[in-house]
Amino acid sequence: MNSERARLTALYGGLLVVAGVLLMGLVYLLVSDRLYRSVMTAVAPAVPTYRLEAYSASALPASEAAQTTVVQPGQYAVARKVSTAAGDAVLSQLLTVSALSLAVYSALSVALAWWMAGRVLRPVGVITARARRLSGSNLHERIALKAPPGELKELADTFDGMLDRIEQLVAARQRFAANAAHELRTPLAVQRAAAEIGLADDPPPEKVAWIRDKLIDTADNSEQLIEGLLLLAVSDEGLRRRERVDLDATTATVTEALAAEAAERSVTVDVAARPVSVEGDPVLLDHLVHNLVANAVRHNHPGGTVRVRVGPGGLEVANTGPVVAPETVPLLFEPFRRAQARRHAPGEGAGLGLSIVASVARAHGGDVGATANPGGGLTARVALPTRA
Stretch 311-329: mean pLDDT, rounded? Predict the structure, then answer.
């Protein structure tokens, strides 16, 4: 920052010094232009005089010629010499005083420019120092610059806003890591308990078969969790390929694939799809639709319904089911968040379903939201940029 301060000092100080030099030159020109005539006019009346003759009238101003007496020819030369000497002395004194004043003015200008540059760059220095001190333990600190509205105030406020977003992101990642560790630890603990307790003391074949099924089921859940984590990481990275995807056709394929599970749970799925095309990754969009519809089917009650609508506004999935508190709805799109207590039912996805939907929507430049239905259940909406 010192180099920038030196540059600003040189710029401001140089401009002030140049302005001082120009002012001094202008004053010198204006003074010297009429100085000798003014001195001659002041000196002439003090000399013994007679009436002005024709040859000397031109030496004085016309307004003075009719009223002023002038010296004789020999004495006029003396008066002119005195006037010239007096004018030279005045100009010399003027130059000396101006030069000294310019030197003092230049020094003050440089000092003032240095101070001004420091004042201007102080917020930048504060931002730089704060950025150097940033770590995971002090992300809560802010610049909070107290200054009048301006570019530097806007810069400091923008930096504070960036720190807010970074703090939220770091906190979300920390929660994600902790939840992921907990989710991965749970099936491992189940497998260990089943192996150590269930297989102790030479268990009968029926118990061995039960333990085998339990271990396979737990391994399936772990595999689904890992696949969900990988899918979430891939969608967070953004799109690697883009192509035209018919969202209505994708929705029809997904709902058809989930028809058997919906029938098993006694849930009716109603689909109304208008032709809509979007630009994106077909695999990720398939996961988006699948997770939304599967979430609506699984978090439902026997005899419930799922309503799927596709149109120019995007995708909307509404379901019946348990009552969801409105304040918890935004949290459902975070990883490992559930509207109800944990259930180890197959295919639950360890609470990653809606978070994957939100991540895929962001990767496609879209937005996702949800509202709690008054009678129970949820209505989720995904808005995606459509392709003509």
Answer: 89
Phi-psi region of 268 (alpha: psi -120 to 50; beta: other; left: phi over 0): beta
Q: What is the pTM of this model?
A: 0.54
Average of pLDDT values for 315-326?
A: 91
The shares of helix, strand and coil residues in the chain, as percent rounded to the nearest 5, are 65, 10, 25
Backbone region of residue 378 per phi and psi (left: phi > 0; alpha: psi in -120 to 50; beta: other values)? beta
Write the DSSP string, 134-154: --TTSTT--------SSHHHH
pLDDT of 202 reads 75
Residues 6+ apart with CB under 8 A from 353: 228, 291, 292, 294, 295
Q: Distance (Å, rounded) from C-alpha 326 to C-alpha 324?
A: 6
**Rounded to 5°, angle at Cα 125 from 123 and 128:** 110
More confident residue, 184 or 343: 184
Residue 188, classified by CB atoms within 10 Å of its CB into exposed (0-12), middle (13-18) or buried (19+), is exposed
